[in-house]
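Amino Acid Chain and Its Fold in Token Form
===========================================
Scope: a single protein chain, as residues and as a discrete description of its fold.
Amino acid sequence: labelled as such and written in the usual single-letter residue code.
Position: the record begins directly beneath this header, with no further notes in between.
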Amino acid sequence: MSERTGIDELLERIREDLDRVEPKEAHAAAADGALLVDIRYAALRERDGLIPGALVVERNELEWRLDPRGSHRAPEAVSHDLRVVVICNEGYASSLAAASLRQLGLHRATDLIGGFQAWKSAGLPVEQ
């Protein structure tokens, strides 16, 4: 019988393969053409605001919207080479989401360390 993995162990293993970025790195990456993807649910976006220029995609639609070969892809999902930085509220769900995008071939997908809260704490732009 195999030993089960808890979420902390799973996150640790997944993050070993991600080139996770700090808020200021994500901001610079966006200026260089990276796609910031906000997967927070609507209530958090309404309460805390939005990152200007970020693509908002609900977590349950992420893979369908960002797969460049998918029939339901977002116009921004142009290539498997696209640099994608996934953003959740605190930087946990985004790691799992980025790993899922990598499984679809988006080999430059990663996530924001600390999520939206870290972005906001770093004094980076937020729209209400």
Notes: The chain is about 40% helix and 10% strand. Residues 33 and 83 are 8 Å apart (CA to CA). The chain has one domain: 17-121.
